Amino acid sequence: MRAGGEHIHTTRGRAHPLCLALLLSLACGDAGAPQGTESDSDVGDESSAGDEETTDAATSDGGELVDWSFDPVLGNPNLDDDDLGERVDWLELPFAEDDELVALVLPALPPGDEVRLEIAGDSEHARVWLDRPGAAPVLMVGSGNGTATPENTLAPDTLLPPGEPARLLVEFGAYGARATLTLERRVDGAPTDTATIALEAAPLLLTDHTLPAERVWVARVPVGCNADGDPDTEAYVEGFVAALGDRVEVVPGEDYGCDRWLQDELEFAVSVDGEQRRLETAMDSIRDRGLDDLPEEALVGVDVAHGVWGAGSANTYDYFGNLEVSPPVTVDGVDYPFGRVYYGTGASQGPHEALRAFLADQAVQAPIELDSSWLCVSHVDEWISFVPDPSADKGFRMLYADALEGLAVLDELDPARELPRYALDHGYPTVGSMQSDDALRAYNEELQADHLDPIRAQLMDELGLQPADIITVPMIFEELGGLCSGYASALVPGMINLIVANFGPGDDHLLVPDPFFRDPAQAQDADPMIAEFRARMPDSLQLHFIDDWSAYHLLYGDVHCGADVQRAPSPTPWWE
């Protein structure tokens, strides 16, 4: 249906713990040494005193008293391209515009003192440079350099002047990298003060629907875009622009192989360092169709990174309509302030193991696996979503599909109501023709009992939800034939497959599939399915019903499948 291709990508793994040690002498002569106590560059940010894991300042063996305590170093991985040099900054020497490095300033030491540096933990993805005013930084420890060599041992003419502070730059090469840096002060060659500093790279966080939207992306596939005669997305895009104006970024589909499935290719995520500076990441799925080039061409650059986890042929579980995250929750006394990631799996399939391992390794969003194998496309966005609701105790409601309620709404309608679009594309000319389809009714009852109810119970347990936290959305599924024989898909466009575009109080929007349970010539207010959906939604949300019938619905997708949202990160410090 939406076949994937091959993509070669190397994912990081934890390095075996190793220690790296070098001597940093601050007591040599100053011949040829650059002057000054601070770098004039904009690189990094300072980490200062206060970490309880480090030693006190006092020395007891003749050395002068020096404050030898340091805060943890909390940084973003240096995976963007701040100099627009078409190379990840981790592969470059530090430069002035590189704002992912964090400065660690050592106090000035008396002449003759030395500092020994050791790094342990994920040393393949953490390293420390000596920042030298007016000269290129020198690599001290980390990035897998397990032994001291002439290349990374400071020569006398590169040392800092005696008695002046040294400015170190800490750099990370992977999300969630963890290491420790031990700084041992030596007086006359004897250890005097020791501090062990935690080095922590920010995890990669998916952003949930309650976080403020900043930009909405949609793919425009124009009429006649390809020779296959696929339907255009013009009405779909026009609906977004009418609702949100210039806050919509329209991707020209003709430049990307007429690929319309933006959500399946791209997921926006974010990291923040100890100063709340952002690094955005365009997560790129391994489906590798036309839109595969979009992140590299339109997104990667200053403070925007690009990541792919996995390789080889993709299955439907690898597509990012199958990767979502809940709002913040508390489960059995455990807080998840960034929500919990969830995705669908089948009996022997699921997202690529590299992606699953990476998401688990980030830890703070503790992934949940759900059975989505009963659906043809098998994506979690087909029957689950979340919307902000300031009137709710938790600040949100989970939207959850309910087939029995879909049948109940159907049964309340006039059997004579004509359904022109369903007549043409699904074989149901009237409401009565659906009501009298015993096989359709039995199939939806079976889905409710075998899948929807058990998964709802699982989500309530794993997200700590109560019935009041959930809004059920009436939905009617159909059993497909052909390549998807025996699997389910939305018969009535899945209004739960929506986009949340929340720009602030009074400016929060839902873009929802138009169910077309009426003559298309009639206004949307005449649609009983729309009326039912409106009655269930929070009053704070502005609802827009988007025509995605030909562009997505008949291709087994809906509104969420063709769009993506960039959001502001949570202000909650991940390190706490």
Could you give the topology of this structure?
Elements: E1 20-25, E2 46-47, E3 73-75, E4 102-105, E5 114-121, E6 126-131, E7 138-142, E8 167-172, E9 178-187, E10 190-201, E11 205-206, E12 213-220, H1 234-244, E13 248-252, H2 262-265, E14 266-272, E15 278-284, H3 294-299, E16 304-307, E17 323-325, E18 329-331, E19 334-336, E20 341-345, H4 353-362, E21 368-371, E22 384-388, E23 396-402, H5 403-411, H6 420-425, H7 431-435, H8 438-463, E24 470-474, E25 477-479, E26 488-490, E27 499-502, E28 508-513, H9 528-536, E29 542-546, E30 563-567
Adjacency order of strands in the biggest sheet? 1-5-9-10-3
- In total, the number of strands is 30
Sheet with the most strands, sense and barrel status: 5 strands, mixed
CATH class of the largest domain: Alpha Beta
The amount of helix comes to 10-25%
- Are there runs of 5+ residues with pLDDT below 50, and where? 1-23, 25-56, 146-159
Gross morphology? elongated
Based on secondary structure, the structural category is alpha/beta
The CATH architecture of the largest domain = 5-stranded Propeller
Overall structural domain count: 2
Global Rg: 28 Å
Q: CATH homologous superfamily name of the largest domain?
A: L-arginine/glycine Amidinotransferase, Chain A
Mean pLDDT: 87
What CATH calls the topology of the largest domain is: L-arginine/glycine Amidinotransferase, Chain A
Termini separation comes to: 44 Å
